[in-house]
Backbone:
């Protein structure tokens, strides 16, 4: 596995590679868990060359968010990426990615003003700006994201379609701990009691899903029940529970086509998210490939 | 010369071509004059394959601007492009470029809030949005612009640098009529008396430049003299005369490095722009290559 830290070197190399080989790209902020590794492994199955980037992007963190305390372990990431079949690990510096103040900014309207976008203003603007840069540097044929951040997948879908990136978006299932908690780099920031409570995010979503399977069609009722479960079973503060059309992320009065039921809960040092996607019959949608 | 109207067909074709040949791209709104043709001819000298696009982009016209009356002559454009050495003429429809409401928007800060950007809010946002789409569809190695719209060149320079497009920006000299008037598709909308007055935009800029050559360093004095000449010699209304650093487009108190002296004048049915770029010694800068 090759490690490249310079954007210029990377771009020149990728231009050459793209002439003869297919490229799969897994953008990450590092501190790999099995969710990341599943994306890399799938990329290795699908493409000639697998590129993973590690870049904790300051642009997508708000002033009061956890940019500084976001967990980092480059040495372990290098080892894990190599094992997962990554060919090129791209680890640019902030200074190389943002050498001067950005004059051009990207913004996203409808899909960003709900869920995490509401409590994290500017977050998805930062995400799509860095992704546009990375897409232009790496020129992938396919890019891989985990559905744990379903809103991010929806926003990247809009980015690729609206701006005609010749890239196929692959969204893979959320990887979970044995008890069901969605894997997240932020889980290490949970206190012990919070860790055992955190599984209730998933259980609450499953409860909401079961209501739909049992015939409930009113989003307000489902959302309320999910909130009640989380409030009863955890010490965290509910940031949101929402049920929206997917991937359009519009509010729905009844369930048609795909919807996402999503939750964010703030614990003391970690804000966790989780979601479940299903259609009007309650059939679970685990990936978009 | 091949004519392609579908974005999908175009993108697939260009992905293939880019694997083995260098691509020069001239984005236009059509109604070709010698300015456009000079860009195409240079692109043909520099690259294996020359692509020109014709797309009157509704996104870059304000509600009270001349989108509808912007001149169009596809038949003549096809003939001229072929003569100029274009290999592929890309003529997408509005519906194919914007099949749904755009969710992602690009904006530009510092370089857009002066000159034409001030009187045409949203104009450069529209320009960089459509260019990002076209760059992703066409994947050029080099892209060609005329310096007649010096602000557009500055904004495209920011777009390419900020978002890491692997594209070299080539800015070529303004092509002029025999009397000095900058060639423009909008010149056909000038009344007869306006056409003979219009040369005074150029003459006024040359007068401003001569002041610098003669030792004047105060932008305010130079700008005032240029405005006086235009007001005296034309029936048009001065939209702006500004002298700014180039390509940063920051206001300057004295001339250091490159500056642009730029003018926009509104005639009855045509709004004309022109500019002149020079350094602190008055040396003219005619192209960026």
Residues:
């Amino acid at each position: 596995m090759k490690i490249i830290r310079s954007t210029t070197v990377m771009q020149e190399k990728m231009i050459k590679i793209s002439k003869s080989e297919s490229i799969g790209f897994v953008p990450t902020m590092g501190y790999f868990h099995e969710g990341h590794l599943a994306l890399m492994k799938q990329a290795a199955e699908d493409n000639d060359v697998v590129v993973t980037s590690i870049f904790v992007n300051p642009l997508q963190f708000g002033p009061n968010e956890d940019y500084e305390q976001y967990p980092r372990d480059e040495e372990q990431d290098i080892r894990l990426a190599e094992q997962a079949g990554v060919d090129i690990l791209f680890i640019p510096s902030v200074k190389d990615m943002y050498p001067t103040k950005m004059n051009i900014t990207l913004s996203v309207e409808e899909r960003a003003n709900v869920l995490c976008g509401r409590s994290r203003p500017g977050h998805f603007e930062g995400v799509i700006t860095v992704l546009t840069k990375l897409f232009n540097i790496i020129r992938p044929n396919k890019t891989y994201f985990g559905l744990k951040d379903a809103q991010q997948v929806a926003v990247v879908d809009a980015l690729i379609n609206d701006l005609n990136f010749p890239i196929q978006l692959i969204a893979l299932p959320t990887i979970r701990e044995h008890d069901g908690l969605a894997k997240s780099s932020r889980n290490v920031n949970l206190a012990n009691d919070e860790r055992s409570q955190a599984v209730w995010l998933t259980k609450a979503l499953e409860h909401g899903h079961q209501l739909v399977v049992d015939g409930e069609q009113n989003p307000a009722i489902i959302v309320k029940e999910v909130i009640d479960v989380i409030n009863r079973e955890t010490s965290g503060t509910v940031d949101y529970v929402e049920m929206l059309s997917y991937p359009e992320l519009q509010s729905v009065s009844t369930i048609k086509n795909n919807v996402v039921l999503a939750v964010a809960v703030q614990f003391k040092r970690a804000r966790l998210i989780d979601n479940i996607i299903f259609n009007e019959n309650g059939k679970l949608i685990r990936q978009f490939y």
User: Anything to note?
Assistant: Residues 60 and 126 of chain A are 4 Å apart (CA to CA). The first helix of chain A runs from residue 7 to 18. Chain A has two domains: 2-172, 185-278. The longest strand of chain A covers residues 237-245.
